[in-house]
């Protein structure tokens, strides 16, 4: 297995840093190849601007079109091209980050904004009466798997079906479905640690054991059964789920998961 770990936490000795280090050692010991993008250590530029596209930037700036033109011409900045190369190299991607304000840290969102360019992560494939581009189950990154390893400060009950923060699957849906599944990556169920603000050193051995078990079963773990866009479940071009495909009473994000 070739694994890319995209890590976003400013403190190397944090719980997130420990989980990243444990992932590297566990996977390498098991014989896998590992690369790490430590975004804070890399001083990753988190904002999209015209400098990303060099001579292919237009005025006024058109982020989607300009990013696609620069991707096609090979004129994206070296840091972005390097991260795209890592994604193409990997067959598994682990994202290690804390849940801050119900979302990923800004530096990680900036990594997505800059690396997932037009003609690389989206805007690929044919648009016709039966297809709406290669996305949601197809695309440049098809054949890869991704896992979110997330730490949350609040207790698990706050993220349950009736919890005040909302179900964790709903909070992560924009990342799972909208960022990862969109360009074709199969998404594994997340590894979530709750109540981490109150965690002590005595708790870590159990956490480490659970994390090692997840890492060593990545290849056999079934992905979330998101519906593929171009394979009959959706009307095209409206992209509405066809009536009657969902279990009785199911609504919201869960409509887009089979079974």
Tell me what the structure shows.
It is an enzyme of class 1 (oxidoreductase). Belongs to the NAD(P)H dehydrogenase (quinone) family. Helices cover 31% and strands 12% of the residues. It has 259 residues and is α/β, with parallel strands linked by helices. The chain has a single domain (2-223), classed as Rossmann fold, CATH 3.40.50.360. Strands 1, 2, 3, 4, 5 and 6 form a 6-stranded parallel β-sheet that branches. Strand 4, helix 5 (168-181) and strand 5 form a beta-alpha-beta unit. The longest helix is centred in the first third of the chain and has 15 residues, at 15-29. The radius of gyration is 19 Å and the shape is globular. 31% of the residues are buried.
What's the topology here?
Layout: E1 2-7, H1 15-29, E2 33-38, H2 63-73, H3 78-89, E3 92-98, H4 106-115, E4 145-151, H5 168-181, E5 186-187, E6 191-193, H6 204-216, H7 229-233
Parallel strand pairs: 1-2, 1-3, 3-4, 4-5, 4-6
State the domain count: 1
User: What is the correct CATH architecture?
Assistant: 3-Layer(aba) Sandwich
Structural class: alpha/beta
At CATH level 3, the topology is Rossmann fold
Q: Detail the poorly predicted runs.
A: none
Gap from first CA to last CA: 29 Å
* Helix share bin: 25-40%
CATH class: Alpha Beta
Order of helices and strands: EHEHHEHEHEEHH
Strand coverage percent? 5-15%
Alpha plus pi helix count: 7
Instruction: Give a count of the beta strands, DSSP E runs of length 2 or more.
Output: 6
Shape: globular
CATH superfamily: Flavodoxin domain
Q: Radius of gyration from the CA trace?
A: 19 Å
What's the average pLDDT? 96
The largest pleated sheet is described as: 6 strands, parallel
Oligomeric state of the chains in view: single chain
